[in-house]
Amino acid sequence: AGNVWHGEVCNRAKDGSLYWVDTTIAPYLNKSGKPYSYISVRTDITQLKRNQSTLRLLNEKAERAAQAKSEFLAMMSHEIRTPMNGVLGMLGLLLQTPLTEQQQHKVSVAQSSAQSLLTLINDILDFSKIDAGKLDLELRDFNMLTTLEEFSEAMAYRAQDKGLEIVVNTIGLQFAHVKGDEGRIRQILTNLVGNAVKFTESGGIQIVARTRSENEKILFECDVIDSGIGIPE
Questions:
Q1: Which of the chain's ends, N or C, has fewer CB atoms near its CB within 10 Å?
Q2: Phi, psi of 47, deg, nearest 5
Q3: Spatial separation of the C-alpha atoms in residues 59 and 55, rounded to whole Å
């Protein structure tokens, strides 16, 4: 057609091997506009093609691994969640039976801890949700003061095994009845306080909680302070 052509061409060498070239062909036209010869510029891109093929195989392998991970997480979270719901159900029934005040208190703490564990189990699924960009926060009414008390009491049993004391400072908690994702707050605090317990050999751990109003919303802030080895700033 008398136009410049550009493309990739696969050739066979004299030894029988294949090689790829990036090719541009420009025609020379006669007075009537018809091509009578051409010039071709070629660049060997065999290695580039090999790299592209390797990268494609790696991508396919990564996609299969990601799919397997999502399926594994979904299966595991379901399998673990079933007995945990059974534990919660039995604890709920136990609370409805005649118990001493001390027994009722211990069952309530166990129920709160089991509920926190169930939340964490559900969060296993969030890894696949994060990959898909579909992670959502819940918006429910809850009592922040009650949440902190139940959480700290459950963590206190772990701390007591190491002779540590957990102190909760809620003086700055201006708002107790709030709307938000209680499970996420428990999850974050569990990670922070769990690490504090793990890396503190003596002394104690202090949880300083406060809330303040900001742009018609309530902002929750919390410091976890321990007497352990500390972390780089």
A1: C
A2: -65, -40
A3: 6
What whole-number distance in Å separates Cα of residue 119 and Cα of residue 124? 9
Distances (CA, A) of 7 to 22, 39, 42, 81: 6, 14, 10, 56
pLDDT (average), residues 119-145: 75
Tell me the per-residue pLDDT of 153-209, one tens digit each, with 9 for 90 and over.
Answer: 888 877 887 889 999 999 999 888 999 988 888 888 888 898 898 889 999 999 999
Contacts of 26 (CB under 8 A, 6+ apart): 4, 38, 39, 40, 41
In tens, the pLDDT along 43-80 reads 999 999 889 889 999 999 988 887 787 777 767 766 77
CB 207 within 8 A of CB 172: no
Question: 201: which DSSP letter?
Answer: -
Token pair recorded at residue 223: 């410091």
Query: Residue 178's pLDDT is what?
Result: 92
Measured distance between the N- and C-terminal CA atoms of the chain, rounded to whole angstroms: 69
pTM above 0.85, yes or no: no
Query: 144-160 vs 101-124: helix axis angle to the nearest 10?
Result: 100
